[in-house]
Amino acid sequence: QVQLVESGGGLVQAGGSLRLSCAASGSIFSINIMGWFRQAPGNQRELVASITTGGSTNYADSVKGRFTIARDNAKNTVNLQMNSLKPDDAAVYYCFLDGGVGVTRTTYWGQGTQVTVSS
């Protein structure tokens, strides 16, 4: 099993910044993808950003140029630096870790952290 613990959410004014952090522990696959989804009320959960063990990144078009994802493989942590926040960025942000291959492939989720952006 893998446990994910998130931190860093909160309230910020539009144009401000927040940094989300996620720490993974447990039986972690050596090769994996970590990242963040978000879900606003009434909306589907959407991918915000992800990063592979090798450092390849993927961003939602809506956050490109404003958000930066980074990870520390030695510490099994992933961070999301969010700049120039907009009210549309307000959501519950969920950290995930996707690892394993074939029948062993599993996705783990954090408990979620609230990001609120005031206009």
Report on the architecture of this protein.
- 0% of the residues lie in helices and 57% in strands.
- The protein is mostly beta strands.
- The strands form 2 sheets. Strands 2, 4, 5, 6, 9, 10 and 11 form a 7-stranded mixed β-sheet that branches. Strands 1-3-8-7 form a 4-stranded antiparallel β-sheet, with no helix packed on it.
- The mean pLDDT is 95.
Return the average pLDDT rounded to an integer.
Answer: 95
Largest sheet, strands/sense/barrel: 7 strands, mixed
How far apart the termini lie comes to 40 Å
Number of strands: 11
Name the beta content range.
over 45%
Secondary-structure-based class equals: mainly beta
Helix content: under 10%
The tally of helices reads 0
The general outline is globular
The gyration radius over C-alpha positions equals 14 Å
Poorly predicted residue ranges: none
Q: Give the assembly state of these chains.
A: single chain
Any key phrases for this structure?
119 residues, mainly beta, seven-stranded mixed sheet, four-stranded antiparallel sheet, globular
Ordered list of secondary-structure elements with their pairings:
Layout: E1 2-7, E2 10-13, E3 18-26, E4 32-39, E5 46-52, E6 57-59, E7 67-72, E8 77-82, E9 91-99, E10 106-109, E11 113-118
Parallel strand pairs: 2-11
Antiparallel strand pairs: 1-3, 3-8, 4-5, 4-9, 5-6, 7-8, 9-10, 9-11
